[in-house]
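Quick illustration, no need to memorize.
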Amino acid sequence: MAETQHPVGLAVRLPFKSPEEFLQGYGQNLSKGGIYLRAKNLRAPGTPVTLEIKLADGSRIISAIAKVSFVTGAHGVGVPGMGFKFLVLDAPTRRFLETAAAVMPHARSDEPPLPKNVGEPDFRPEAVEPPLPVEPPPATGAPPPSQANPSLPSEQSGRLVVTSEASTLEAPAFEAPAEEPPRTGPIIGIDLGTTNSCAAVVRDGKPVILRDKDGRGLIPSVVALTPRGKLSVGAPARAQMLSNPRWTASGFKRLLGRAFDAPEVQPIIRRFGWEVVPTESGDCGMRLGDRVYRLEEISALVLREVKGLAERHLGVPVHRAVITVPAWYTEKQRLAVREAGRLASLHVERIVNEPTAAALAWGYGRKLTQRILVYDLGGGTFDASVLELNDTVYEVMSTGGDPFLGGMDFDTTIVAWLLADFEQKHDTIFSDRVAIQRVTDAAERAKIALSTTHEAPIKVPFVTMVNNTPVDLDVVLKRQTLVELTHALVDKTMEVCQEVLKVRGVRADEITEILLVGGQSQAPLVQERITVLFGRKPLQGVNPNEAVAMGAALLAHALEKQEGLLLVDVLPQSIGVGLPGGKFEVVVPRNTALPVTRKHRLITSQDAQEAIEVPILQGSKDQAKDNTYLGTVRLSGLPPAPAGGVAVELSFELSNECLLTLTAKNAATGQDVAATFATQDAPEVVKARMAALERELPPPGEEATQPRGFGGWLSKLLGG
C-alpha cells in the first residue's frame, strides 16, 4: 500500500489520571521510539497517522505524527493491535518520552515495543486484508502538524478502542522449601540490610565480601512484581522503583515482625510507596498485585538472592548462615529473621547484632584492649553500642537505638522540603506515587553527593502537569540547607549515644575509638557532631557498608572452626509481663548480659483455678499496651486449691542471640507445669478470646504486682 500524503487522524483516551499513572499502568507499551496500542480496527503497516493520546480528564499526553510499524492479531491469531513509530513530536511529548526513557530502561529503544503475549508482529503492508480505506484529511484543510505545534484532529475523526492494562496482576505464590535446610557445607555471613544486603566468607584468615561477575557486592534489598506478573529481586527490582513503586518493596526491614496496628507502625505506613497491609496473623505484610505476602517471605526472597550469589561464588551449595540484625530488634523480630532464613533454605546458625558484628570486623586478630562505641546509622534503623574488647572477647556493655531512624528519614525530610518549595513556586501539590518516588530518588542522590560537595542539583523533569503543561522540579540543594533540614535527626542519634554511656556510667572521654557503620553515618554533619561529643574524630578506613557482613563472616568462621571467640551481647529492651490494670512489670531488665535466666512468680487468684494466662511483652514503657506484644503464655493443668494456694515459677530463658524460651514449675513441688506460648494468633482471635473473660483489676488502693485471674484483663492490653 502506497503511503498517502495525508495522515489518518487517530485519538485515544486512556483511563489514567496522571502521566505517572500512565507510566505505571501502560509504560511497558511505550518507548521513546513508539507505542503499542490494542485496537479493534487495524491499519496497514506504513499508514501515516496523526496520533493523539489523552488522559482520563482529556489532557493531552502524547501528540505526534507516526506511522504504523507493525500489526498483531490481523488474522485472528494473537491480540489485535498496532505498533506506531514516532516520526514528528511536539516539545511536551519529547520531554515526556525523555522522562519515560530515564525511568524505564526498555523505553530507550528507538522502535515501538512489542508486549508479551500479543502474538507475532507483521510488518507487511498487505497484512491487513482487505486494505482499509484511507480517511480524508480533516475538514479544516490544515497542513500536517509541525514539530513545534501539531494541529491534531478531534477525537471523533478517528478513534481506537483501547484495552486498559492497568488491572491488578496475578502475582505468583511464595514457594516455601519442602524440607528443612541441612546443616552441612560452609557457613556464610549475611548482612540483611534495609537498603542493601551482602554476604562474606573468610579466606586465609581474612573476611572477603562475595561479589558478582561485575564486581558488585551489594544486592539491593528490593523485591518487585513486574508488569508481566513475575517476582524480581535485587538490582532489576530496584530499576522498577521509579516506574512502579506500588509493586516494588523496599525498606521492609523496618516493619519485619511488627504488628500492623502497633502505634509505632501506623504513622509511618504512608511513607512507603508500596501497600502495607495486615497478614492473617496481624503482622505487617505487603500487597503485590492480587496477593498479600508476609514480610518474612519478602525478606526470604532477598536472602535467596544472596544465597545464590554465594553458591555461584563458592561453587558449592550453601545451607548455613550467620545473619545480622539491628541491636534494637525485639525478640519477635529476631524470630522473623530466623523464619526468613528458613524460607530461603538457610539454617540460621546464629543471629548477631549489627554493631557487635562491625566491632568484630574491626578488632578481630588485633589483640586489642579497648572500650569502643559503634555508631550504626543505616537506611532504616539506628543503633549505638558500647563494647569492651579484650583480645578474643567482645563484650557489649550497653546498647540503645531507634528502630525508625535512618537514611530513609533523611530522604523524607528532603522530599518534604522539595514539595513545599514546589508548592510555593507553582501553587500546586502532587501526591502521585511514581512522582514522589522519582523525587525521593533524586533527593537521595543529592544527599549522597553532598557528602563530598557543597551543593547538588535536584532536577526531576516532567514531575507533574500544571494547567495541562508539564512542569519540572528543578532545585539546587546546598550542604548548609541539608544541615538545617536534618540536624534534628542527627541530634536524636547523639541523645542515644549519651544515654548508652550514662546507663553504664561511662564518660565520653573514656571511649577509645568510635566506629561508624551504615551509609548514612558518612554524612559530614554526623562526623562533626561525633567529634564534638567525644572529643576525637571517628575511625576512618572502615567500609560502612561491608563491615557488618565481614563481622558476620568472622563469627561464622569461628563457629565452623570452633575457635575460642566469645561474644557477650546484652538484652536491648526489657522483657516482662502485663499486670491487672494494664501495668508492665519488668522481669529481665534492658542491658542484661546474655545468655540469662530469670524467674517470675505467679499465683492463682480463684478457687480451683486450672490455668493462668499471662501476656509477655518487650519494651521500656510503664503501660503494657505501649510495649511490643510477644505472645501469651498459658500455664495449664494446675492442681485444685483455694485462691492463692498454687504458686508457679515461670522461667525466662534468653539465649545469647536474645531468643526467648519460657518454662514453668510448681513452686511447692518442683514439678513441671505445662506451658504453651502462643505468638501467632490472629488479632481477632485473641480479642474474641479475651472478650469472653471479665477484666480483672487489683483491689482498690492495692498496687498490681501479680496477675490475678487467668487473662480477662488481656483484652484491655490489646486494645479490645
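Confidence is low (pLDDT under 50) at residues 1-5, 131-167, 685-695, 702-720.
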